[in-house]
Design goal:
It is built from two helices and nine strands. It is an alpha+beta fold.
Length: 153
Amino acid sequence: MRRITASALGGALTAYATIGAGTAALADESPAPARLDPDKIAGLNLTAIPPDKYQDILVAGQLNMRVATLFEGKELRVSIFESTPAKTSHRTRPTDVDEFVYVLSGKLILTEPDGKVHEYLPGDSLVLPVGYQGTWEMQGNYRELVVLAQKGD
């Protein structure tokens, strides 16, 4: 019985090694998963954005923003965005791509042009379709994980 078990085990190991080698060859042809940096998600080591970059849409507060790109691919980009309390209006500069937003800290208040208000707290998520033209108010130490569709060429 031991011979059969040892023989079966040897065969299984040989098969595993053969399959594993084939898998490694396939892995070279396929992109790998991208782990998102937990320090950046926590707001560490983000890059400041010059406050004057968005002065044309600032309605209230002061835009002290920091960002980090966590992943950039052919079809989407994943970033962390953080801001001090501020309110911006997108009536003259509507969103130009679809955005998925996951609120990490602070509070987000979106107000549509018709006055309808949407409030989001940490743990809430939303999708802003391309062309959103309302206001975007960030309260507290606002931080979000945002997934943006990449613009087509």
